[in-house]
């Protein structure tokens, strides 16, 4: 988690004009769209491969990273880092108690 917040810090310093809530929401949707575009490419849907060639793991991973960083920006903006950590812990504990994970 800490590394994501470091990326948020760097991005906010690099692009100080893009830190307002609606800008973050817009970028999150944009990055989710780019993840969807990668999925299209991976699933050989439409003309994506004709235009862009074979899918690359690093490209999909990079789009996923960008979408995740946008989510972490929202968490940081509203100061819910601890609550996010707690929510993840509760979810993992529940899954463990249900025997879904070790
Ligand atoms: Mg992107």
Written overview of the protein:
The protein is an all-alpha fold and 102 residues long. The protein has one domain: Helix Hairpins (Orthogonal Bundle), CATH 1.10.287. It is 76% helix and 0% strand. The chain has five helices and no strands. The protein has helices spanning 2-14, 21-42, 48-52, 57-77, 81-97. Helix 1 packs across helix 4. The protein binds magnesium ion.
Please sum up the structure shown.
This protein has 102 residues and is mainly alpha-helical.
Ligands (ions, cofactors included): magnesium ion
Q: Please indicate the percent range of residues in DSSP E strands (runs of 2 or more).
A: under 5%
Determine the CATH topology.
Helix Hairpins
Largest sheet: none
- If classified by CATH, what would the architecture be? Orthogonal Bundle
Cα gyration radius (Å): 17 Å
Number of strands: 0
- Average pLDDT, all residues: 94
What is the number of independent domains? 1
Treating each run of at least 4 consecutive H or I residues as one helix, how many helices? 5
Output the helix-strand order: HHHHH
Could you say which structural class the secondary elements and strand pairing correspond to?
mainly alpha
What is the level 1 CATH name? Mainly Alpha
Helix content: over 70%
